[in-house]
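S.,

Sequence below, as promised.
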Amino acid sequence: MNAPWRQRQSEFFDRKPQESRHCASIEVIPRRIILGVGTAVLCYPTQKAIALGFTKELKRKEFRSEEIVTSDPFTFRGAPHDGIQFIDSIQGRGSFLEAGDTAVVHFTCRYRGLSAVSSREARTLGGNRTIAEPLEFKYGRLPAEFNKPLVRKSIIGIGAEVRVDPELGELYVVNTAFHGPAERAGIRPNDTIISIDGIRNLAERTISEIGALLTGESGTDIELVIKRRIGRADELVETFKLIREETYVLPKTRNINIEGGGGLFIGTSGPKPPPVIFIPEALAGMRAGGRRTITVPPDVGYEDIGQGEIPPGASFQLEVELLQVRNDAP
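The prediction came back faster than expected:
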């Protein structure tokens, strides 16, 4: 059931962390689902990413340029990919990680110097406490999902998912597609759409009728009048003139089946690791006890979906600590 518009906004502005003698933190995970039809291969336009609501600040570590190493090139999603840069901040002294071994790791994704996604805070307990939950996977082979080209469904429109609030009788924006016309224009989730090309009383129309108003031929103009709450009491009404174009549909979040030498499965209790962690070249040469910091580009990171506090299309730093190397061969 949809919350009223005022309640939706107050949840955003008034959210505060719960106090606890153990810790005080909250995690804000935005929804990112856009519906559409058709298919298209996804590309990544350049865009500055912005994130909100981090729960923990970490000290930034500086490295000398001569410490930076570039991995060997690799194949990802069926296409050649340049090597990625990394730094070994701690040299392990245990067993080398070899193809077919089980890697037991902790990972932390840092965006703008802050901890955004981490296996060290993988499970939440009572009292807002968290416990670590290491990731285990078979090293040396990419999951089948990352051997296929990335394909997204697409739709020609403004790149926004909308919904009717039945209690307030308003049409509001649920989300916007990464780098789509609506996002580039500055339209935000929770904005109320007052009119589309001069047509008002949108809440009285069916979703299919609204969809027909928003979609159309590529390159055609569309005008939206948007109402946005500013602060706690003021409202701002703006007119946006957009051009319809092909935008990509975000898939529903799902777990990854890690295949190869055991078919380990990443369950729902832990955070979703970025795909780069499964690329053999990214962890090549590591030994148990070692720690590596990898600069992750968006296409081998969280792509156009984002994760937790990492927004779509963002690069970030991935810190991997190799806790244990297990050879399960008989």
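The radius of gyration is 22 Å.

Coffee later?
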